Amino acid sequence: MQENFSLKPFNTFSVEAKAKYFTEVTCVEELKEVLHFANSNTPKLPILFLGGGSNILFTQDFDGLAIKLNLQGISEESINENEVLVTAKAGENWHNFVIHCLKKNYGGLENLSLIPGNVGTSPMQNIGAYGTEIKDVFVSCKVLDLENSELKTFNLEECRFGYRDSIFKQEGKGKYVILEVTFKLTTKNHHIKTEYGAIQSELENLGINDNVTIQDVSKAVINIRQSKLPDPKETGNAGSFFKNPTIPLAQFEILKEKFNNIPGYPNGEVVKVPAGWLIEQSGWKGKQIGNVASHKLQALVLINATGNATGKEIFDFSTAVINSIKEKYGIELEREVNII
Ligand SMILES: Cc1cc2nc3c(=O)[nH]c(=O)nc-3n(C[C@H](O)[C@H](O)[C@H](O)COP(=O)(O)OP(=O)(O)OC[C@H]3O[C@@H](n4cnc5c(N)ncnc54)[C@H](O)[C@@H]3O)c2cc1C
């Protein structure tokens, strides 16, 4: 247990924030012990769980106990000759887990290659990229109920996954800590998804035209991500800062009259509009204010441009973006990143 501990190395924005207490746990028993410590303090200490710190923005110090989850281990159970259940503990690095599965030729996670963070966080916002979300292969997750310290399992339906959303960001927020996640993956006859984004053209660049494998898809996704997203090791960021907004079809049609090139993906009576387009069209792409900027290749990604930004500065920048989009398009952007 460390006191007055700097969380700068534990968030990919690389902003300074101190935790009153900090500790790392490697098993459920240790976790229960430190939770007991927090609960027996008067008053009870607020708790913050940390995975890879790649979806979090500290705007102030954390006056409680920050717990870095380092539970490790991967296990598997065969279902039939085509499918396998693979379970990974919360502290496993997501990308390493994807690579582990690809080495065993287990399919289903390849489009989610190179997403930062840990396995235990993946259900929080139903991580997604290149036409796949974890809900597509998710079976269940084991959690610890923070109220009664009991173990509980959430199945697919109970997680209520949505776009960058789950029960753990809604009514389950702050109530559970995810300990491990189980996925159902294919062992053969993999469902190859190349139609999304630039996967197809990247495969062509790589000289791969037929018999595309899950390993090829992963390679293409890695190349695309490396070419357009800033590496948090070099430039602090948390990936997409905002969600793509969903607006009523009627509102979209009115906007289309004024901004005839506005892109939209209709789904029944609503339309999803790419937040990156709105931000770019409002002049924010590559724009820097003080230590913060919108990334020059990907407007949706806010960056700690100088390495000296405070969380408050990044938050204020995001508020300025939200206000300007609201004024121009009447659309209110929602932050994807968890604000502390
Ligand atoms: C360069 C870059 C690219 C990205 N691209 C994508 C992308 O393509 N798709 C996508 O979906 N996301 C993307 N992200 C966002 C991020 O990688 C994911 O949201 C990831 O799942 C966050 O994991 P983490 O372990 O780093 O979470 P953290 O930042 O450590 O935690 C996020 C939140 O979850 C809570 N939490 C963490 N672990 C647990 C747990 N075990 N139980 C309960 N609560 C917990 C934390 O308290 C916090 O509120 C990107 C981020 C970066 C930096």
UniProtKB/TrEMBL annotation:
Annotated ranges, domain FAD-binding PCMH-type: 14-188
Catalytic center residues: R164, S240 (proton donor), E336
Pathway in which the depicted protein is active: Cell wall biogenesis; peptidoglycan biosynthesis
Compartments it resides in: Cytoplasm
UniProt KW Cell division keyword: yes
Spans traversing the lipid bilayer: none
Chemical reaction(s) catalysed: UDP-N-acetyl-alpha-D-muramate + NADP(+) = UDP-N-acetyl-3-O-(1-carboxyvinyl)-alpha-D-glucosamine + NADPH + H(+)
SUPFAM superfamilies assigned: FAD-binding/transporter-associated domain-like, Uridine diphospho-N-Acetylenolpyruvylglucosamine reductase, MurB, C-terminal domain
HAMAP family: MurB
Protein name per Swiss-Prot or TrEMBL: UDP-N-acetylenolpyruvoylglucosamine reductase
UniProt lineage: Bacteria, Pseudomonadati, Bacteroidota, Flavobacteriia, Flavobacteriales
